[in-house]
């Protein structure tokens, strides 16, 4: 059966990045447990739930990490949904998890770590981009199938979301991290006609709550390590 004809129903999948995380030590938290939303992050989650309150959302799913679950919870509650979990939405694995990370300080100061930086195109320091793309596409398509003719929300993390979007828009997967268009609590919105992706959109419902140095395309703030660390982990 062809599910891509002009008469096929539309399904929308919003892929949301979680809100700001409490990270006073400024580490790259990655997949490490125990990292929760900050007070500002919880406000971001509530803001997006309000933004999507009138939408026809019938399925909500999140990465298993606390910050993603906490971001998705207000939205699921506002639509009377049980929140599902999909491990395919998890943050990318990274060899530097639990460490501070920067040029001239943190993990990069140790020559033993330099071997992990030899191939930025894979990347050599973590989960390959292509593996992220494969699992994210599978997670999004599963959400699409659960919400046929309606809308779904998948809460994930910056790098996997940007890798997914780059793959769907047929761009190279390796990139400059400073140029990712995936601000905290942002929505990357995928519209399908049947099984066919027809558009990719992007919006920032909580932009006024996002510190300027953490917005899409912003350069890292020149400040103390703890403040810079709030951008880590995605």
Record keyword descriptors for this entry.
234 residues, alpha/beta, 6-stranded mixed β-sheet, two-stranded antiparallel ribbon, 5 helices, globular, disordered C terminus
Structural class, by secondary structure, is: alpha/beta
Shape, per Cα inertia axes: globular
Which percent range fits the helix content?
25-40%
Beta-strand percent range: 15-25%
* Number of helices in the DSSP assignment: 5
Question: What is the mean predicted local confidence, pLDDT?
Answer: 87
Description:
The protein has helices spanning 39-51, 66-78, 129-146, 158-168, 225-229, and strands at 10-17, 57-62, 84-85, 101-102, 105-106, 151-156, 187-193, 196-203. Helix content is 26%, strand content 18%. Strand 2 (57-62), helix 2 (66-78) and strand 3 form a beta-alpha-beta unit. With 234 residues, it is of the alpha/beta class. The strands form 2 sheets. A 6-stranded mixed beta sheet has the order 3-2-6-1-7-8, with helices on both faces. The protein has a two-stranded antiparallel sheet with strand order 4-5. Mean pLDDT is 87; it is low at 220-233. Helix 3 (129-146) crosses helix 4 (158-168). The protein is built from 5 helices and 8 strands.
